[in-house]
Automatic annotation (TrEMBL):
This is phenylalanine--tRNA ligase. It comes from Ploceus nigricollis. Pfam families: BMT5-like, FDX-ACB. SMART domains: FDX-ACB. Its EC number is 6.1.1.20. SUPFAM superfamilies: Anticodon-binding domain of PheRS (SSF54991), S-adenosyl-L-methionine-dependent methyltransferases (SSF53335). Transmembrane segments: none annotated. GO terms for cellular component: mitochondrial matrix. Keywords: Aminoacyl-tRNA synthetase, ATP-binding, Ligase, Mitochondrion, Nucleotide-binding, Protein biosynthesis, Transit peptide. GO terms for biological process: rRNA base methylation; translation.
């Protein structure tokens, strides 16, 4: 591998590396050879480097690396820059500018899977790894600066100068003097995945005898048809689903009926707020000859059941009141209504469901639901519920202890006495129908528990004299987040391969973030709301998701002002931009904020202030 070292003072660090097997060292410094050789021990290190076959290059500007190497020798597997500094008494702003130029230059010469190692003195980096940590404005803000060039911080560890044979730091204020490296940190950066390009996606499906198409809501474009639950998937969501199914099959005969479930539902779902639904408009699908690339049936194929309320004949208008399914419960109720089940057999339905919601770390506009349905003899439903819950608790306990070695707290709480504030998953389930129990899983740092499932019995109109139908709905994504220690649900949907590499062959493990201390950028937006209208916060949050490509991590109401005399109402929100898996620079975040201002004015009818 080719290793590039920049800003060498006396070349003692490069000399310590030059003997590594399979490594070709290119050691450089900013000074001329005459200036560099005058530093204590430099001449000896340079001779050692050249004798070992290493390259030594002088007068190299770290912000213009491409200019110093021939086209065939520009790619490096690792780049080291130890204790960069503009020289003399340069302040933090100039040193940030130096790092910015350095990282942009590295982008032109670093191999795709390469690493950049930057050692900084204690406190300079501005990350939580620095102890003590400087105030942000007084640091070099290295993670944010690197993000502007497309790099993420993948690791940080102590720079142990005493373990490097012959190493001596030098260059204090551009002099041949050493400086304190106690508490210094080595920051390791890697390339970020490229920003996603959200081009419109249309999907085709069969409705009755007619093939129709619909445009996927833009906020869901990168989440449709990801195949997390498919047989060849190693995604933790599938692993948890398979483990739960295996555990349940020990207590009940089990039948999986997920393959034929429709992606779209028709007409308005009773009790559900219309603003929580992703509505779609259907249109006759174009003929095969006119179908654009990417709109083929393979993108998505979902079939409506034979009992679709509104049949569509060839040439007839297509009904428009369709929406992406927010739950699998209507599909389960359709099975119950047709009596298409065997009493005592557990029916398992699973698949992605879609719900508009506010932006929080555990609120998901799409997640994978696992719904189990069981018909039991009247009078035995309570014991069957307990058996079902005990089985789920045993499996979740086993999974969590296998991952972290710690037993989680799992509780079944009566819906009437549920003391914890409902999360978005539980609150939406309330809208779908009466709930008997909430299933909560508590892990550090929230031992009180987060609702991951609900238990209910079928409504009266679906009951019979002999049978009662019990169902349990589980949020597989939320379970994966809690069991694997994933702090942000968005990580489940990342396109970065570093995520799935941590779960080989479906093995559940504690997740280790590959993007450490991602920078956040705070912007405020204030506007007048239309007179007499209630502001739709869910629509605002959904718009922010779409505009930013899920880069908004928080939206908080800062001020609600009513103008005396006119009665006009003004709202001020604080919007925080932060990515969990890729580089997000301050300029890109500022552009997102400007776009968000334009979009809320256009789509929500507000007047910007």
């Amino acid at each position: 591998r080719r290793v590039l070292l920049l800003g060498e003072g006396n070349f003692s660090f490069a000399a310590a590396l030059c003997g590594a097997q399979g490594t070709h060292v290119v050691a450089t410094c900013y000074e001329s050879e005459e200036e560099a050789a005058g530093r204590g021990g430099a001449a000896r290190s340079i001779r050692r480097l050249r004798d070992s076959g290493a390259e030594v290059v002088f007068s190299v500007d770290c912000t213009k690396l491409k200019e110093h190497f021939l086209p065939g020798k520009r790619e490096f597997d690792r780049i080291y820059f130890n204790f960069p500094h503009c020289g003399r008494k340069a302040g933090v702003v100039k040193n940030r500018q130096l790092l910015a130029g350095f990282f942009h230059s590295c982008a032109e010469v670093l191999a795709q899977e390469g690493e950049i190692h930057v050692a900084l003195c204690n406190g300079q980096g501005g990350t939580p790894a620095d102890q003590p940590r400087r105030e942000w404005h007084n640091s070099w803000q290295i993670v944010a600066v690197a993000a502007g060039a497309g790099f993420i911080l993948s690791d940080v560890h102590p720079f142990e100068a005493e373990t490097i044979d012959g190493y001596k730091c030098t260059g204090y204020r551009s002099q041949d003097k050493s400086f304190c490296v106690e508490g210094a940190l080595n920051h390791i950066f890697t390339r970020s995945t490229a920003p996603l390009c959200f081009t419109p996606v249309s999907c085709q499906t069969q409705l009755g005898s007619q093939k129709v198409s619909f445009q996927v809501p833009q906020v869901l474009v990168d989440k449709i048809n990801r195949g997390f639950l498919e047989v060849n998937s190693s995604h933790p969501v599938r692993t948890i689903k398979e483990k739960l199914s295996a555990g349940l099959s020990q207590a009940f005969p089990l039948q999986n009926i997920s393959s034929c479930l429709p992606l779209l539902h028709q007409a308005h779902p009773g009790g559900v707020c219309p603003s929580s639904i992703f509505w779609v408009t259907l249109s006759p699908a174009p003929s095969t000859e006119n179908t654009s690339q990417g709109l083929a049936d393979s993108v998505l194929c979902s079939h409506f059941g034979q009992d679709t309320d509104e049949k569509v004949q060839e040439g007839c208008p297509v009904p428009k009141q369709f929406y992406l399914r927010p739950s699998l419960l209507p599909d389960a109720q359709a099975i119950i209504k047709k009596r298409a089940f065997s009493p005592g057999t557990l029916q398992v339905l699973s698949g992605p469901v879609f719900r508009k919601c506010r932006i929080t770390p555990h609120s998901m506009p799409v997640f994978h639901e696992m719904l189990v349905v069981l018909a039991v003899s009247r009078g035995t439903e309570n014991s069957c519920i307990q058996m079902l819950v005990d089985n789920i608790k045993t499996t979740v306990n086993s999974l969590h202890q296998g991952v972290s070695g710690v037993k989680p707290s799992i509780s079944l709480q009566e819906a009437t006495s549920f003391g914890t504030e409902l999360n978005d998953f539980a609150a939406f389930e309330w809208q779908l129908g009466e709930i008997q129990h909430f299933l909560c899983v508590g892990t550090d740092p929230d031992p009180s528990g987060s609702c991951v499932g609900v238990i209910r019995t079928a409504p009266d109109e679906l009951k019979s004299h002999e049978l009662v139908v019990v169902s349990a709905s589980l949020n597989l994504d939320l379970l994966a987040v809690l069991l694997c220690g994933i702090s942000d649900w968005r990580m489940l949907w990342t396109s970065d391969r570093c995520f799935l590499r941590q779960f080989p062959e479906g093995e559940l493990r504690l997740f280790k973030s590959f993007s450490l201390y991602p920078p956040s950028y705070v912007h405020d937006v204030s506007f007048w709301v239309p007179d007499g209208e209630e502001f739709d916060e869910v629509a605002f949050h959904t718009l922010a998701r779409r505009v930013s490509g899920e880069m908004v991590v928080s939206i908080q109401l800062r001020d609600n002002f009513q103008q005396p005399g006119t009665g006009r109402r003004s709202l001020c929100y604080r919007v925080t931009f932060q990515s969990c898996d890729r580089a997000l620079g301050c300029r890109e975040a500022a552009e997102m904020q400007l776009h968000l201002r334009e979009e809320i004015q256009q789509h929500l009818g507000v007047t910007l202030r």
